[in-house]
């Protein structure tokens, strides 16, 4: 494990991921959905784990999401997750549902566990039936030792992503070390809600189901639901958390003295993955962070942040290192939030460009130089109330157009 | 005037514009806001005209919009419009307001009319003060005969537009020929509401103010508010209609027997301009029309249409001539409208690609060939209710990114 950036209470392990918590293994293979790359992966826990999920709000929820939700509902647990990339199994009707159930059943049979203990999910092209023979052949081989490898899993879930994404944290619960690890994939059709991506989080903590679900929803609203790449909310997004309890701490609930610490750890994992997805947005060259302060409510702060981070004009200006703050103010102005123009301040990094509703004198070249960095911070101060929010996204580039003008064919 | 494409009751004059109705003249000059192109233009009526306007919903409404709204409110009339391009006079505070009033006063003085009879509007870069000396010098020269020219006006309002936009229609009201002419500019920050553009419509009809305003709002909701280029709602959008009554028909109100015909004519003008703006969106190579049928309400039909036409993924797929209907279905699915997946049909041109919630067998090459055309029609049938809507937009291309990564600097 690489170096640990530790704060007092949360140890961050940049290289850690889903198999760092006790009792989890993961792997992946190439089964033939994609031409060459890994396209089928799994996470398995030694014992059934308390499970919580959040799912896309798109009306055309893909078949595997329906299967996974229904399965978790049976006893709030799963023991394994099977993921394929290259084909979303979305808009595939009854046959798609049959296929998702079959994926689940076949993998459960290999593991020797009940079907409803397997969560299934898919990502890739919409509207094509899964190549079930290839997937079934893959499922028969995937548990072989040679494919058991966390890196294989992290690779097998990717589509147009350019890199794997992972993070783990450790916190002390009842004096015992609890680990939370995660991985995720982006990188197009990325827009709240929900996360418009796949995220997998594992932990060896013992957590009550309802509280875990509550924490996941709350954290998702602050992290995965605050990123956008292109404003398109996919049919397949989900984040799953598995908590297998192998650390044997006293069960975590909202009443547990270390509850906040556990949620902080979960939030660090989800925020880190969310930012990595935004940075790795299709064609992106920069990560953009929009911090909105001083709103009348949490929802208003989020709405302003999302409006700015979703603006194609803001995104292209950042790509072109153009300190065109007028586009930021414009996007705030159409967010639907009752902003008071004469109170608004905007900064790009350390440079204040707009103050109390008026442009500030700036040295254009200085700000342009700032915008050449890879991490851009936009600070918007509404100066109206006490609520803040952060949103993350990326610039809009030639490569975004290139990737999406020819992704499928 | 070029050839007239006449329907039975509405004669369409593709080359007609704002000076075709009786008693209007227009012109434009280069006053120095832009480097070379025309940047200051006017429309003047021989007599005060009943005026109606619709304005951006962006909270940061630019100074000239405030001035124009306030002025029209005085007696529901204006006699002239002064427009500059190259500078939006937006986010310019008290000084911006003072400058807009001064533009108005100076031009009124040249015309020898009261200030409140001049509407003013601006388009271009946000957050810079108007170069008032240049504008004032321009105003002193602009009424000279050599600059009086409808084409000059149509050019003077453009920013990144690649072409002028115009249309006129003629209808018989009380047996007299009434002409309605219009011009508009796009072509970035184009998204409802309102039109995110400038539109100017003139007519020699005699129309009651309240009814004219009602008709303009209704027509705008079906036309200018149904287009998008990039989802960004500008600070400066407005559409102004001037009706100078020189045809001397009996005053048009909702009770007039020819009222519907007049509104039809107005709608044809606005729809034509709206489509031209969409087609001339920044970097666009294609006009996309999304027809949504069978919704439970007008608003739901519009919401589905806007969601699809705004999707970067749909726009890039069309650019790449990729029959990726999954992105269309996805965008419908996150529109917020309670669609029933198993009832949904989608066609690209004459090719049905999705029926009752399932993919249709298609000959990929045929659909790809269709998508190579310049005008693409997407038909979405919800099969739920009786309401329909149409939305227009354009593809998302390398050139959009190029234009917007470096527009300002």
Automatic annotation (TrEMBL), chains A, B:
It catalyses: L-glutamate + acetyl-CoA = N-acetyl-L-glutamate + CoA + H(+); N(2)-acetyl-L-ornithine + L-glutamate = N-acetyl-L-glutamate + L-ornithine. Substrate binds at residues 159, 185, 196, 282, 404, 409. It comes from Neobacillus rhizosphaerae. Keywords: Acyltransferase, Amino-acid biosynthesis, Arginine biosynthesis, Autocatalytic cleavage, Cytoplasm, Multifunctional enzyme, Transferase. The keyword Cytoplasm applies. HAMAP family: ArgJ. The record marks 195-196 as: Cleavage. The keyword Cytoplasm applies. Belongs to the ArgJ family. This is Arginine biosynthesis bifunctional protein ArgJ. The active site is at residue 196. Pathway: Amino-acid biosynthesis; L-arginine biosynthesis; N(2)-acetyl-L-ornithine from L-glutamate: step 1/4; Amino-acid biosynthesis; L-arginine biosynthesis; L-ornithine and N-acetyl-L-glutamate from L-glutamate and N(2)-acetyl-L-ornithine (cyclic): step 1/1. Heterotetramer of two alpha and two beta chains. It is an enzyme of class 2 (transferase). Coiled coil: none annotated.
């Amino acid at each position: 494990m690489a170096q640990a950036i530790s704060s007092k209470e949360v140890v961050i392990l940049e290289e850690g991921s889903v198999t760092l918590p006790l009792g989890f293994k993961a792997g992946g293979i190439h089964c033939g959905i994609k031409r060459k790359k890994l396209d089928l992966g799994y996470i398995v826990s030694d014992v059934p784990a308390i499970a919580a999920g959040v799912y896309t709000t798109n009306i055309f929820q893909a078949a595997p999401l329906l299967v996974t939700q229904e399965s978790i509902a049976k006893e709030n647990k799963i023991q394994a997750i099977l993921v394929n990339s290259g084909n979303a199994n979305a808009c595939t009707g009854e046959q798609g549902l049959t296929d998702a159930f079959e994926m689940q059943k076949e993998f459960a049979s290999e593991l020797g566990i009940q079907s409803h203990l397997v969560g299934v999910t898919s990502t890739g092209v919409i509207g094509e039936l899964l190549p079930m023979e290839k997937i079934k052949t893959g499922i028969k081989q995937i548990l072989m030792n040679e494919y058991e490898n966390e890196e294989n899993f992290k690779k097998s879930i990717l589509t147009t992503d350019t890199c794997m994404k992972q993070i783990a944290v450790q916190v002390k619960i009842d004096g015992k070390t609890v680990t939370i690890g995660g991985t995720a994939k982006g990188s197009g059709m990325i827009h709240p809600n929900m996360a418009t991506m796949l995220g997998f989080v594992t932990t060896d903590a013992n957590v009550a189901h309802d509280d875990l679900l509550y924490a996941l929803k709350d954290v998702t609203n602050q992290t995965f639901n605050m990123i956008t790449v292109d404003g398109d909310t996919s049919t397949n997004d989900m984040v799953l958390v598995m908590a297998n309890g192998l650390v044997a701490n006293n069960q975590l609930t909202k009443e547990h003295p270390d509850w906040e610490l556990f949620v902080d750890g979960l939030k660090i994992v989800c925020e880190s993955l969310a930012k990595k997805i935004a940075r790795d947005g299709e064609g992106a060259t920069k990560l953009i962070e929009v911090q909105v302060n001083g709103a009348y409510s949490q929802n208003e702060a989020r709405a302003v942040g999302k409006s700015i981070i979703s603006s194609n004009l803001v995104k292209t200006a950042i790509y072109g290192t153009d300190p065109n703050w007028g586009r930021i103010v414009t996007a705030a102005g159409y967010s639907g939030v009752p902003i008071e123009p004469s109170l608004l301040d905007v900064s790009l990094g350390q440079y204040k460009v707009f103050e109390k509703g008026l442009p500030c004198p700036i040295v254009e070249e200085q700000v342009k130089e700032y915008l050449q960095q890879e991490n851009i911070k936009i600070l918007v101060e509404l100066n109206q109330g006490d609520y803040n929010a952060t949103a993350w996204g990326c610039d809009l580039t030639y490569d975004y157009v290139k990737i999406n003008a020819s992704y499928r064919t």
